Amino acid sequence: MLSVEGMAIPAVKMITPKKFSDHRGFFSETWSRKAFAEAGLDLDFVQDNQSLSAPVGTLRGLHFQSPPFAQDKLVRVTRGRILDVAVDIRASSPSFGQHVAVELSAENWKQLLVPVGFAHGFVTLEPDTEVLYKVTAPYAPENDHGLAFDDPALGIDWRLPADKLTLSDKDRKHPRLSEMLRFFE
Question: Is 34 helix (H, G, I), strand (E, B) or coil?
């Protein structure tokens, strides 16, 4: 019981689980191996991650892991709102260097499936935003990489001026696409 929509880059998918509401609140099956497999998405998630970002403008990314620990990610918001971005870093892809940007929120209940071969990041659009995401490989520090969020070649509109963004020191130092090693040929 979920809706799967293709995006401008077909490998990236928008997932909307069914939500059942009544006077008590709601119930939603946000992940079901069977339902996803029936929709053609056969994924083996091994870890759940959760982040809380207090200020508006917290930017996390653009992150990815290289093989053999490359990750598919299923991203959703349980409180607040984000602009979620996936950048195609598959060197042989016709959409190499292009990105998809979508708004995910607790209200719209959408999830973004970011496949292996994409750098992923998001910026918070509301205070105290919580993001949960499932991944198909465990965290591997030696395979942890990033891409510059402000690379002009990517042309990402983060919706906020650069001086209003809060980033980690690590996320300010990622290479541009033209400087990055090609992990996904």
Answer: helix
